[in-house]
Specification:
Shape of chain B: globular
Oligomer: heterodimer
Radius of gyration of chain B: 20 Å
Largest sheet of chain B: none
Shape of chain A: globular
Structural class of chain A: alpha+beta
Order of helices and strands of chain B: HHHHHHHH
Number of helices of chain B: 8
Helix content of chain A: 25-40%
Structural class of chain B: mainly alpha
Strand content of chain B: under 5%
Number of strands of chain A: 27
Helix content of chain B: over 70%
Number of strands of chain B: 0
Largest interface: A-B, 58 and 36 residues
């Protein structure tokens, strides 16, 4: 960093990448094309994903919160990621842990709620507190933070992804993209090594497991298949050890319901696990006068079943990609839990080769996220592209509770599917549709995403009304639904009520509450957001004008430049709605020009010419 | 939607999938939402719609069954459960026998036996695919010439289902490949 940058009061906002992990989180950025993790004032880059709620609205995140965990186990939330996007009655809430959960009241969304003393928080809010801390850390380093890429396990379902995105919004971040963790890691490795080939990314974190098979070719990172388990990780190793500890001391239900003791045992279990990475035997004093000893062999025996579960997912992912282990050019290890020697041995035997771990497995995901954020902000080479897939099949419940799969897993995103329905009864004016995600035959065995009712179908004899429902999964892996009655052409934007999660209004309300001064703050925030957006669009339009001038029709240039001038003038004033309006005007003025550009890009792609070749070549750095 | 037109391909069953994959990748490069992060709303929407179309088209074209379905549909021949002719009795008998053999080797946990059946069925599948390829080529899109081949599509579906079942059994018997 140069002195100039340090003292520049109007530093341009920089994009950031965030790894919102189960055990710890971190933020990274790119400087001179190199990604690096941002450290705190103690030179530490890993922020423990622990949030402690104190009296009078006090919130502590990270190390200090972690230190409070054993004395305030109920008010200190550890591994909140495991609760993201889950319902209040999810089995995850019944497992060994110190928390006090509250059931949702009548009419409240079905999400996990922690009772932390003088208030109740949802996993989205807890995650937002972690993200806010990371945002501040990044602001200290970069002064102004632009958009953020937040990583999620590839195997996260729609509800878990939506919850993560909501947490980002709540923390005041502009979420550019949700990026799958293994893909992020592959980006960090791929750009570092400049190697083409097929790779497997084995990502075992604190609470989630992902396996991703991807092809790196000519700057495109194409995910072939992905699989995993969004409730399998280092935490489960700790719990397996903790169970044995409880057993050895003859502790039963009474002790298991003592939150402080549970916290202490879980923490000690983790310490034992860490110790066994380098030692063959570890002794630990759990409480005064009570010690346990574990050997690595014992520990390996305890986690054997967990590793087998990862093996099943790996074999299936290979099969989905139509590959054999020998076809791979490399296996990449990601996530802190891959430090466990038994994990490395297992991966080696599974794939028949020594896995790569030369980029710090705790940091590699954040580094990849920062690279992607930089790409999305248009600040890097534009020959890199990530093509990801849907992790789970998407289906609709039909008669008898059976799932009609409409989008198979491992479909490249963005993607969509249509399904046509017809009325079963005369004069039927409504339809209930249940959307699920998963591979099982019965809807009850899959994950419920949303239920919604289509209303306002004109009364007709049975079978006459034809409803076309369109599903779309965007590049974040998020689902939207649109419905249309074909005979009358009645369009309906379906508001999807998520089975698990908060609706838009609830998030908006939380956002308002989080802002100290309500209205004015919100207006200031809108103004800032609109200005940033306007700046981005003006810049992109000007670039397009320069590059594709020959595609301008008569009058285009004058019209577009006038729209730009008007927008720029509006940005100097402070009325967000006017900026918004003029952004739309510019959009309209350049619409036909944009369409012509897109058509040409498509024609060139079909001819087999690289877009980047045409636009003046790769930027060579 | 004509998936062949979307990918700039001729309407044909015999395709060089590697070349099509490359075209899909270049189209993704041109249309992926990541490329339009700074664009105005309508351009972003437009690109997204087209990117979705391209991905859907690739999903159809890469899969022999979906590809054949698309070609029949484009030739004005309805396909799908209720439209296709009933499978020949001989095919049904044959598949029943194959299924029984599969169940027997499964009960014996005879992985090599399952694999043998899979290999046999894969060869049959390839033969039908080749026949379909020839048929589409010879018909030049002629409606009547093609209608005679719809039954082959049904046959392909039976083989696919059998192979999926066998594949699940291989997984079950816990065989790492």
């Amino acid at each position: 960093m140069t002195l100039l940058e340090i003292f520049d009061p109007k530093a341009a906002p920089k994009p950031i990448g965030i790894d919102l992990g189960t055990t710890h989180s971190l933020v990274a950025c790119v400087q001179d094309e190199r990604p690096y993790a941002i450290s705190d004032c103690d030179f530490e880059v890993l922020l423990p994903s622990v949030v402690a709620y104190g009296p009078k609205g006090a919130v502590e995140v990270g190390k200090l919160a972690k230190a409070r965990a054993s004395d305030h186990p109920r008010e200190t939330i550890v591994s909140v990621k495991r609760f993201m996007g889950r319902g209040a009655d999810d089995p995850e809430t019944l497992r060994l842990g110190p928390y006090k959960f509250l059931a949702p009241k009548e009419g409240e969304a079905n999400v996990v709620r922690f009772d932390v003393g003088d208030r109740v928080v949802t996993p989205i809010e807890v995650s937002a507190d972690i993200l806010r801390t990371l945002k501040r850390l990044a602001e200290d380093e970069l002064r102004a933070v632009g958009g953020a890429v937040i990583t999620v396990p590839a195997y996260f379902d729609d509800a878990q992804r939506q919850a993560t995105k909501d947490a980002g919004r709540l923390a005041g971040l502009e979420v550019l993209r949700l990026l799958n963790e293994p893909t992020a890691a592959a980006l960090a490795y791929g750009l570092d090594k400049k190697q083409n080939g097929t790779f497997a990314v084995y990502d075992l974190g604190g609470g989630t497991f992902d396996i991703t098979i991807l092809l790196l070719d000519d700057g495109v990172f194409q995910v072939k298949s992905t699989g995993g388990d969004s409730a399998l990780g280092g935490d489960d190793m700790d719990r397996a050890l903790a169970d044995v500890i409880f057993e050895r001391f003859g502790w039963g239900e009474k002790e298991k319901n003592d939150p402080s003791l549970v916290r202490v045992v879980l923490d000690q279990a983790r310490a034992i696990k860490h110790g066994l990475t380098t030692s063959l035997e570890v002794e630990a004093e759990i409480v005064a006068g009570k010690s346990v000893t574990f050997t690595r062999v014992e520990f390996d025996g305890l986690i054997g079943k967990l590793l087998e579960r990862t093996g099943v997912a790996c074999r299936r992912a290979l099969k989905d990609a139509a590959l054999k282990p020998a076809d791979l050019d490399g296996v990449i290890l990601v996530g802190g839990s891959t430090r466990v020697p038994a994990v490395r041995t297992y991966v080696k035997s599974l794939f028949g080769r020594e896995p790569l771990a030369d980029i710090d497995p705790d940091q590699v995901v954040a580094l990849g996220a920062a690279l992607q954020a930089n790409l999305l902000a248009g600040e890097a080479r534009d020959d890199i592209l990530l093509l990801d897939v849907t992790p789970l099949s998407l289906g609709i419940e039909v008669g008898g509770g059976v799932v009609d799969k409409i989008l198979p897993r491992n479909t490249t995103t963005p993607t969509g599917a249509r399904a046509t329905y017809t009325t079963q009864e005369d004069q039927q004016t409504g339809f209930e549709i249940h959307v699920v995600q998963g591979e099982r035959e019965l809807a009850a065995d899959c994950r419920s995403l949303a239920r919604f009712t289509l209303k306002g179908i004109p009364p007709m004899p049975a079978g006459m009304a034809k409803l076309e429902v369109t599903f779309r999964v965007d590049a974040d892996g998020l689902l939207t639904v649109h419905a249309r009655e074909e005979t009358t052409g009645i369009e309906q934007n379906v508001s999807v009520k998520p089975s698990f999660g908060l609706d838009d209004a609830a998030v908006e309300r939380m956002l308002m509450e989080a802002l100290d001064h309500g209205e004015t703050d919100l207006k200031a925030r809108r103004l800032a957001e609109n200005r940033v957006e306007a700046g981005r669009i003006v810049q992109a339009t000007q670039k397009a004008l320069a590059v594709d001038a020959e595609l301008l029709a008569d009058g285009d240039l004058v019209r577009i430049q006038a729209a730009i001038a008007a927008l720029e003038a509006a940005c100097r004033a402070d009325e967000p709605s006017r900026i918004h309006h003029l952004i739309e005007e510019l959009d309209l003025a350049s619409k036909e020009f944009a369409t012509r550009r897109m058509n040409r890009a498509i024609a060139r792609a079909i001819e087999g010419r690289r877009v980047t070749d045409v636009e003046g070549g790769l930027s060579t750095h | 939607m004509d998936p062949f037109a979307t990918l700039g391909l001729e309407r044909t069953f015999k395709l060089d999938l590697r070349a099509v994959e490359k075209t899909h990748r270049e189209l993704s490069r041109a249309l992926h939402p990541d490329r339009y992060m700074s664009s105005g709303a309508s351009e972003r929407r437009d690109a997204l719609t087209r990117a979705v179309e391209v991905n859907e088209a690739w999903r159809v074209v890469r899969d022999p069954i979906r590809r054949a379905e698309a070609l029949f549909t484009l030739a004005g021949i309805a396909v799908g459960d209720t439209h296709e002719p009933k499978p020949a009795a001989s095919l049904l008998m044959d598949m029943m026998e194959q299924r029984e053999t599969l169940a027997e080797v499964r009960a014996k946990r005879d992985l090599a036996g399952v694999q043998g059946l899979v290999d046999e069925m894969t060869v049959r599948q390839q033969k039908i695919e080749a026949a379909l390829g020839d048929a589409f080529e010879a018909s030049k899109g002629d409606h009547d010439a093609l209608t005679a081949f719809v039954a082959k599509l049904g046959e392909l579906r039976y083989y696919r289902r059998f192979l999926e079942e066998a594949s699940a059994i291989v997984d079950d018997l816990g065989a790492p490949s």
